[in-house]
Design a protein that fits this description.
The protein has 13 helices and nine strands. Helix 7 packs across helix 12. The chain is globular. The strands form four sheets. Strands 1-2-7 form a three-stranded mixed β-sheet. A two-stranded parallel ribbon has the order 3-4. Strands 5-6 form a two-stranded parallel sheet. The protein is mostly helical.
């Protein structure tokens, strides 16, 4: 998302609509040095439509490590782009930031430092505007059932729609009307017209819905069988099931509390609404409409540009939920300070804090590189 955002206040002073102007970019990059790839990673990219022919014929070259002596080399292009980002001192938003930070440093900045403490110290100077990690917010603060990007994005869309319908602070986006071009790709990402959220399936139907879903993909956003999996990777259906699970837990909790009140002699005249239960035949009809001519629904679009859009939108929704407008659109003035410079760590109870320790020193490579940038040397 671009930084060209603005806010509209609704009649209620406690409710705002955050409007963002969106521009996304997808730069096809190609490493000019030897590198190792995992077959499973290549398979994943092919299944999601990645064009390796285009990458090797048109990819923008880059190299790893420190700057090379020839500043006119075409492989300096992406480094120059990254230098602009560093000089802007703008905050940067990632999803699962640590891997991206290591990649950006090694490939577009300088050779990685020998220690983690130096790496963190360097990052505090490279990204002076701060680092925000939507996976950290999702796992440590918002606590969604899953935290892979496609799930977070789709769940954020649903949450935002619900917030709009209840006149709470929400997000709207405006995308520039690009003219038709071979370099412009469009990806439809609106919510489907129907869902199972308001349904009340019986136990057999509920189990049938759960059995239709690939549980591995539902939990982690990845399946070892890929497109050969005979289960659904439909993220909207996965979200429907999660919603139904939470609804059932809530009903059990209310029923338990009501029974406890009756045992204590308290009368509770309120009763749970009785809805006509959703049947297997209705679910089969629902799937038929959702799938059309397809046998099974697979995962959605994956591109660097689209992934950045999903990350930006999810973060915008988090701003509308946890932030506040204080007269400025700088993130430091939007009530998001608590999330700044906290990076998700897999399997850890605490995030990685991007804060320079009094006992750590910046690396030699970074010291030389940042000096070049400050002196405007390419």
């Amino acid at each position: 998302m671009s930084d060209d955002s603005f806010l509209e206040a609704s009649p209620s002073s406690s409710c705002h609509t955050w409007n963002f102007l969106v521009q996304t970019y997808n730069i096809m990059a190609l490493c000019q040095e030897e590198y190792v790839v995992e077959p499973s990673s290549l398979k994943f990219l092919v299944e999601h439509g990645f064009d390796f022919n285009k990458q090797y014929s048109c990819g923008v070259g880059y190299y790893r490590g420190n700057d090379k002596p020839d500043p006119t080399s075409s492989s300096m292009c992406l480094r120059s782009f990254f230098t602009v980002l560093v000089k802007s001192r703008k905050p940067v938003v990632f999803h699962n930031a640590l891997t991206d930070l290591v990649y950006l440093y090694q490939n577009f900045y300088a050779s990685l430092p020998p220690t983690m403490s130096s790496f963190i110290a360097d990052l505090t100077e490279i990204f002076e505007g701060g680092v925000y990690d939507t996976k950290y917010i999702t796992d440590y603060v918002h606590r969604m059932p899953a935290s892979y990007l496609e799930y977070v994005f789709r769940k954020s869309q649903r949450d935002n729609t619900q917030r709009q319908s209840t006149e709470r602070s929400s997000v709207t986006i405006n995308i520039l009307p690009y003219p038709p071009s071979e370099t412009v790709n469009h990806c439809r990402c609106g919510l489907p017209p129907d869902s199972l959220q308001d349904k009340d399936p019986d136990q057999d139907t509920f189990q049938a819905i759960k059995d239709h879903i690939c549980q591995g993909f539902a939990g982690h956003g990845w399946c070892s069988s890929g497109n050969r999996c005979n289960k659904s990777h439909d993220i909207d259906l996965i979200l429907d099931v999660d919603h139904l699970v939470q609804t059932r837990k809530s009903r059990k909790r209310k029923r338990r509390n009501r029974n406890q009140n009756q045992e204590d002699g308290d009368s509770d005249e309120s009763q749970e609404p009785t809805n006509k239960q959703y049947t297997k035949d209705q679910f089969e009809e629902f799937l038929s409409k959702r799938l059309g001519d397809r046998e099974i629904c697979k995962a959605g679009c994956h591109r660097a540009g689209f992934d950045s859009f999903m990350t930006g939108f999810s973060f915008a929704v988090y701003i509308s939920k946890y932030g506040s407008y204080n007269g400025s659109f700088c993130l430091d003035d939007c009530g998001m300070e608590a999330f700044k410079n906290n990076v998700y760590l897999s399997g850890k109870d605490m995030p990685l804090s991007i804060v320079k320790s009094t006992f750590s020193k910046i690396s030699k490579n970074h010291k030389e590189k940042i000096k070049k940038i400050s002196e405007h040397v390419p």
